[in-house]
């Protein structure tokens, strides 16, 4: 198949803290309910796997069949992108490093990052903790002393937050986020507000010992960071992260038209507006794949888009 821009269709996951607000916000249509997460980019064979429009393939199948579209040093697609808008606080959780994840759960670890797209005035996230030693963390956690253990931050619209493996975190109620992570789905929960899963009629599983094994102590999390936008080729650009072997993330806003030079493959997700990328129309909530070495893109319309990509470990 000739290299071209292709639309990646979303994969929906039901969650107990979900609803239908994501569907209304981004004009999605699905029978899944209550919608908690929308995976705009995910390629986990047999689990969560986005369809590729017009190809009769999933994203993981395309990654295997057309390696020249990606030219990656990983067996599976290395990144994942999703949108989250919870109607209740998420569980307090962390993701492990690769070595631990592979040893105990036959999975990869999942460092991730968020950009806050919208938040109410009282919006917050759980991020990090107050314990000074592993012993103190263990005591507070096992005594359910969450008030003295957990650290909360006010959510900041348009700010970026990096979440390395081993960092406690939880998106708060009504905080809309764009998320990028390694293409994995391994989460260890330490606290879930004693919620009962309506399907099992039981409280959801916690992973206290695995959290204690992996949590960073003392907490060295950085919190929210502001990256200053700049103008280039008719676009307002913000460059958030560029780490070989992990992911690359930028944001582009256009008022009428602009250009974006791209060397590596990328997934472009539009979170506001509508327009065209070259001759492909894209509207709010949609994602397109740009193949590797595709060249300069023509952007037209009023759009707010995120560009997620990946550099191999040997790239600079």
Please specify the SSE layout and strand pairing:
Blueprint: E1 6-8, E2 11-19, H1 21-26, E3 35-41, E4 51-52, E5 57-58, H2 59-65, E6 79-84, E7 92-94, H3 98-105, E8 112-118, E9 124-129, H4 134-142, H5 146-149, E10 150-154, E11 160-163, E12 169-171, E13 176-182, E14 188-191, E15 196-197, E16 202-203, H6 208-214, E17 224-225, E18 230-232, E19 235-243, E20 247-254, E21 257-262, E22 266-277, E23 280-283, E24 287-290, E25 295-309
Antiparallel strand pairs: 1-24, 2-3, 3-6, 4-5, 6-13, 7-14, 8-11, 8-13, 9-10, 9-12, 11-17, 15-16, 18-19, 19-20, 20-25, 21-25, 22-23, 22-24, 22-25
Question: Can you describe this structure?
Answer:
This protein has 316 residues and is mainly beta. It folds into two domains: 6-225, Jelly Rolls (Sandwich), CATH 2.60.120.10; 230-309, Jelly Rolls, CATH 2.60.120. The protein has helices at 21-26, 59-65, 98-105, 134-142, 146-149, 208-214, and strands at 6-8, 11-19, 35-41, 51-52, 57-58, 79-84, 92-94, 112-118, 124-129, 150-154, 160-163, 169-171, 176-182, 188-191, 196-197, 202-203, 224-225, 230-232, 235-243, 247-254, 257-262, 266-277, 280-283, 287-290, 295-309. Strands 1, 18, 19, 20, 21, 22, 23, 24 and 25 form a nine-stranded antiparallel sheet that branches. Strands 2-3-6-13-8-11-17 form a seven-stranded antiparallel sheet. A hairpin with a 4-residue loop joins strand 15 (196-197) and strand 16 (202-203). The mean pLDDT is 95.
């Amino acid at each position: 198949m000739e290299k071209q821009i292709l639309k990646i269709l979303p994969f929906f996951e039901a969650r107990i803290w979900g609803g239908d607000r994501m569907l209304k916000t981004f004009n999605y249509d699905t029978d899944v309910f209550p919608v908690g997460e929308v995976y705009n980019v995910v390629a986990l064979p047999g689990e969560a796997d986005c369809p590729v429009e017009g190809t009769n393939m999933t994203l993981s199948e395309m990654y295997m069949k057309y390696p020249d579209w990606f030219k990656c040093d990983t067996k599976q697609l290395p990144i994942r992108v999703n949108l989250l808008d919870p109607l209740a606080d998420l569980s307090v959780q962390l993701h492990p490093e690769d070595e631990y994840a592979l040893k105990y759960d036959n999975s990869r670890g999942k460092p991730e990052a968020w950009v806050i797209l919208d938040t109410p005035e009282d919006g917050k996230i759980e991020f990090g903790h107050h314990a000074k030693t592993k012993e103190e963390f263990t005591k507070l956690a096992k005594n359910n002393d969450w008030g003295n253990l957990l650290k909360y931050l006010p959510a900041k619209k348009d700010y970026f937050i990096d979440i390395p493996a081993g960092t406690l975190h939880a998106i708060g109620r009504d905080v809309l986020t764009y998320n990028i992570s390694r293409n994995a789905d391994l989460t260890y929960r330490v606290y879930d507000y004693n919620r009962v899963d309506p399907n099992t009629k039981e409280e959801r599983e916690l992973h206290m010992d695995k959290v204690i094994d992996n949590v960073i102590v003392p907490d060295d999390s950085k919190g929210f960071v502001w990256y200053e936008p700049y103008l280039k080729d008719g676009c307002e650009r913000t460059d958030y992260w560029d780490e070989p072997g992990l992911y690359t993330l930028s944001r582009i806003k256009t008022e009428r038209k602009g250009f974006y030079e791209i060397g590596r493959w990328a997934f472009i997700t539009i979170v506001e507006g509508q327009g065209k990328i070259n001759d492909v129309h894209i509207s709010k909530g949609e994602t397109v794949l740009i193949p590797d070495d595709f060249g300069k893109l023509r952007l037209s319309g009023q759009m707010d888009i995120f560009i997620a990509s990946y550099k191999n470990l040997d790239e600079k």
